[in-house]
Specification:
By secondary structure, this protein is an alpha/beta fold. The chain has 10 helices and 6 strands. It is elongated, with a radius of gyration of 19 Å. It starts with 7 loop residues before the first strand and ends in a 10-residue tail after the last helix.
Length: about 240
Amino acid sequence: MTALGDGEVVLFDMDGVVLEGGETDPAVRSRALDDALDDRGLTASASLRRPLERAAYDDEFRAACEELGVDPPRFFRAREERTAKRAVERLSAGMRRLHSDADALDALADRAPIGLVSNNYHPTVEFVVDHFRLDAFAFVRGRDLGPDGFRRRKPDPHYLNEALDALDATGGIYVGDRATDVIAAERAGLDSAFLRRDHNAGRALDVEPTVEIGSLRELVDLVDSGAIGPESERS
C-alpha cells in the first residue's frame, strides 16, 4: 500500500532531475541566433547580440529587435525553434545523458501515474522521452515556443495544471531542482520534492519544499513509507 491516493500523480522536472545538465547551454542559443539572423540575411552588433541571445523575452530583447528591423515575437520564436533544433542535435550526438537513478521512474509509475513537465522547449522534451525510451511517462509537456511559452514558465503553474487536467488528477507531488519548481508546485496545489544533486547541492532555498531528496530512488522509498504524498485538493 502506498501513500499516494486515488487521483494523485508524481510529476517531474526534466533538466537536472531526469536529464543531466541544469539547463540548455547558453552557447546553443548563441549559435541559434546566428541561424535566425542568417535566415534573414542579417547581422547584429555585439551590443545587439547580448539581449538577442539571452533566454528572456523582455524589453531589451524587443528594443534590439526593433533596432534590427524584425518583429519581436516572430524573431523570438524563430530563435527558439533554432535553439530547440540545436539542442536535439546535441542530445542525438550523446552530449547529455539521463541521470543514473532515472531507472526509478518505472518503479514510481507502478505506484501512480507519472508525468514530465519542463521549462525546456516542448520539441526538446518530446525528443528526450523518445530518444531515451522513457515510456513510463503518461504525460509529457515542455513549454511552447515563443513569447507565450516564455511567460508560462515555472513558477507559473500553467503547465502543471495542464498535466493535472490531462491525467484527471486532484493532487500529488512535483519533483524539481529549483525554487521555481517548489513555488509552481504550491501554486498548482501539489506537494514538492526538492532534489539535490551536484549542480545544486549548496543552493540556499528561500521557499520550503514538502521534502528534500538526494535521488529519485529515495523518492520511491518515501512514497512507500508514507512520508510523502498525502491526499490534497488543488487550489
